C-alpha cells in the first residue's frame, strides 16, 4: 500500500511539473492613444468574466505629510460617479450576480470584479465611470474618513500584534517612503483639503497610469469595441506622475527595537533588507522562506513548534516590493518561554541553512511546492487577471505569467545557501521585540 501511495505521489509531482511547464496563458495586449494599457485573456471554461484595473499608485507615492491617500482612494472610488448614485456601485455589481473588491499596497491599487459573462459590458462601463469622473466631494470624503478610521481600529489598534508591520516598516526604512504602511495616518486624512484629494485623483487615476485586464468568457473583437467605446475618450493625464527616487542606505549594523502592546505572548521579528521584486536572488529567498516555514514539515514548524515547543507560531516570508524590500522571519513565544531563547533558536535554524547542505529530497519537495503554488495562482480567472496586471505594471513584461516558473526552476540548493549567507546576516537586519505591556519597565 505504501508503494502505491508513493507511486501516486511521484506521479502527481511529475504531472504538476509538466502542467506548469506546458500550460500557456494566452493573451493579447495593446495601448489606447490615451495611454491605457489593455490586456485580454480569452477562456471559455466557465461563463464568467473578470474586469480589473490596476493603478500604478501606492503608499510610496504619497506626500509624507499626507500618508494614507492611496488607501483612502481605494474606499473613495466606491462612492459613486456622475452616473452611478452614491453607494450604488456595490449594489449594481452584486445585483447582477457579481463580486467585487479592491486592495492597496505600497506600490499599486487594484480594483476587480468577477461577473457573469453576459454582464461584461456593465463591468467595463462601471470601471470607466470611476476612471473618468468618480464622485469626489465633501460628503463622500467625510463618509470614507469615518470608514477608514474604523478600519484602522479593527485591523490595527484593536487586533493582537496589529501594529507589528507598522513598527517593522517604520524602523526598517529611514529614507525611502516604504517607511509608512498603506493605512497611513488618520490625522493627515483629517487635515487634507478637498483640493488635495482632487489633485491626487487627477494625477494618479488616469488611463496612462493604469492597466485594464478583461479575462474569461469573452469575445475579443466585441470586447475591444466596448473598450474603445467606454475608455477611448477618457483624457490622458496631464500631470507628471511622481515616482520616489530615494534609495534606502544599506544597514551597517543590526538595529533593535522594543515595542509594547496588549498581546498575550512576546514576538520576535527579524527583518532583512533584500533586492526588489523580480530580482534573481528574490526567487531564491522566497524558496528559502518556504523551506523554513511553509507547511507542517517545514524546519521552523518541526523544530521550534513541534519538537522544542518554544513557539506557538512561526513564519518566514518575503514582502514583495517594487523597490528593494524585506525578508521577514518571526516567532511568537510559547508560554513560559523567554523570547531571548526563542530568538537564539530561530538564529540557529537560519545558521543551519548557511552551513549545512540542503538534502536533495528536501529540496525536491520544495520545488514541487513552488510549482504547485504557481499552477494554483493561474488556476482561476481572477488569479490570472491579477498576475497579468501585476507583471505589466511592475515589469512591463506581461508574458512573465508564462515564464516566471523558469526563474524558480533555475534556483539550486546551493543558491539557498548563498542567499542565506548574503542577506540573512545580523548586520543586515532589524530585530523587533514585540512584547506584552506587562514586560515594560516603569
Describe it for me?
- The chain is α+β, with helices and mostly antiparallel strands and 442 residues long.
- It is 46% helix and 18% strand.
- It is built from 16 helices and eleven strands.
- The strands form two sheets. Strands 1-2-6-3-5-4 form a six-stranded mixed beta sheet, with helices on both faces. Strands 7-11-8-10-9 form a five-stranded mixed beta sheet, with helices on both faces.
- The termini are far apart.
- Mean pLDDT is 93; it is low at 1-21.
List keywords for this structure.
5-stranded mixed beta sheet; alpha+beta; 6-stranded mixed beta sheet; 46% helix; globular; 442 residues; disordered N terminus
Helix % is 40-55%
Unreliable residue runs? 1-21
Structural class: alpha+beta
Oligomeric grouping of the chains = single chain
Give the beta-strand count.
11
The H-and-E topology, N to C, reads as HEEEHHEEHHHHHEHEEHHEEHHHHHE
Summarize this, please?
The protein is α+β, with helices and mostly antiparallel strands and 442 residues long. It has helices at residues 2-22, 69-76, 88-95, 120-133, 138-157, 164-172, 186-191, 194-204, 220-231, 280-293, 299-307, 339-355, 360-377, 381-395, 400-409, 413-423; strands at 28-31, 37-42, 48-55, 99-104, 109-116, 210-216, 255-261, 267-273, 311-319, 326-333, 429-436. It has 16 helices and 11 strands.
Task: Summarize the topology.
Blueprint: H1 2-22, E1 28-31, E2 37-42, E3 48-55, H2 69-76, H3 88-95, E4 99-104, E5 109-116, H4 120-133, H5 138-157, H6 164-172, H7 186-191, H8 194-204, E6 210-216, H9 220-231, E7 255-261, E8 267-273, H10 280-293, H11 299-307, E9 311-319, E10 326-333, H12 339-355, H13 360-377, H14 381-395, H15 400-409, H16 413-423, E11 429-436
Amino acid at each position: 500500500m505504501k508503494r502505491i501511495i508513493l507511486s501516486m505521489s511521484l506521479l502527481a509531482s511529475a504531472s504538476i511539473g509538466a502542467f506548469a511547464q506546458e500550460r500557456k496563458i494566452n493573451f493579447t495586449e495593446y495601448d489606447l492613444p490615451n495611454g491605457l494599457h489593455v490586456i485580454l485573456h480569452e477562456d471559455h471554461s466557465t461563463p464568467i468574466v473578470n474586469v480589473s484595473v490596476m493603478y500604478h499608485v501606492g503608499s510610496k507615492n504619497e506626500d509624507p505629510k499626507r500618508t494614507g491617500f492611496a488607501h483612502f482612494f481605494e474606499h473613495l472610488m466606491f462612492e459613486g460617479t456622475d452616473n452611478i448614485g452614491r453607494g450604488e456601485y456595490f449594489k449594481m455589481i452584486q445585483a447582477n450576480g457579481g463580486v467585487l473588491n479592491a486592495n492597496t499596497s505600497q506600490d499599486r491599487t487594484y480594483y476587480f470584479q468577477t461577473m457573469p459573462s453576459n454582464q461584461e459590458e456593465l463591468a467595463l462601463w462601471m470601471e470607466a465611470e470611476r476612471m473618468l469622473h468618480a464622485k469626489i466631494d465633501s460628503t463622500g470624503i467625510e463618509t470614507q474618513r469615518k470608514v477608514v478610521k474604523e478600519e484602522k481600529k479593527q485591523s490595527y489598534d484593536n487586533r493582537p500584534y496589529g501594529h507589528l508591520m507598522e513598527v517593522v516598516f517604520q524602523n526598517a526604512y529611514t529614507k525611502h517612503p516604504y517607511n509608512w504602511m498603506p493605512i497611513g495616518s488618520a490625522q493627515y486624512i483629517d487635515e487634507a483639503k478637498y483640493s488635495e484629494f482632487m489633485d491626487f485623483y487627477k494625477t494618479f487615476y488616469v488611463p496612462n497610469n493604469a492597466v485594464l485586464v478583461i479575462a474569461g468568457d469573452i469575445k475579443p473583437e466585441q470586447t475591444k469595441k466596448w473598450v474603445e467605446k467606454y475608455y477611448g475618450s477618457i483624457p490622458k493625464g496631464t500631470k507628471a506622475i511622481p515616482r520616489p527616487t530615494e534609495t534606502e542606505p544599506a544597514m551597517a549594523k543590526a538595529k533593535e527595537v522594543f515595542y509594547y502592546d496588549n498581546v498575550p505572548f512576546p514576538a520576535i521579528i527579524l527583518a532583512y533588507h533584500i533586492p526588489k521584486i523580480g530580482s534573481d536572488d528574490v526567487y531564491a529567498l522566497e524558496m528559502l522562506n518556504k523551506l523554513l516555514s511553509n507547511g507542517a514539515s517545514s524546519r521552523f514548524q518541526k523544530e521550534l513548534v513541534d519538537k522544542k515547543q518554544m513557539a506557538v507560531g512561526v513564519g518566514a516570508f518575503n514582502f514583495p516590493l517594487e523597490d528593494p524590500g524585506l525578508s521577514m522571519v518571526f516567532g511568537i513565544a510559547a508560554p513560559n518561554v523567554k523570547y531571548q531563547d526563542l530568538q537564539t533558536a530561530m538564529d540557529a535554524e537560519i545558521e543551519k541553512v548557511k552551513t549545512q547542505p540542503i538534502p536533495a529530497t528536501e529540496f525536491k519537495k520544495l520545488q514541487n511546492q513552488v510549482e504547485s503554488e504557481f499552477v494554483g495562482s493561474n488556476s482561476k480567472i481572477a488569479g490570472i487577471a491579477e498576475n497579468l496586471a501585476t507583471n505589466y505594471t511592475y515589469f512591463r513584461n506581461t508574458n512573465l505569467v508564462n515564464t516566471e516558473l523558469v526563474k524558480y526552476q533555475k534556483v539550486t540548493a546551493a543558491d539557498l545557501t548563498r542567499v542565506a549567507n548574503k542577506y540573512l546576516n545580523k548586520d543586515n537586519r532589524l530585530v523587533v521585540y514585540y512584547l506584552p505591556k506587562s514586560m515594560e519597565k516603569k
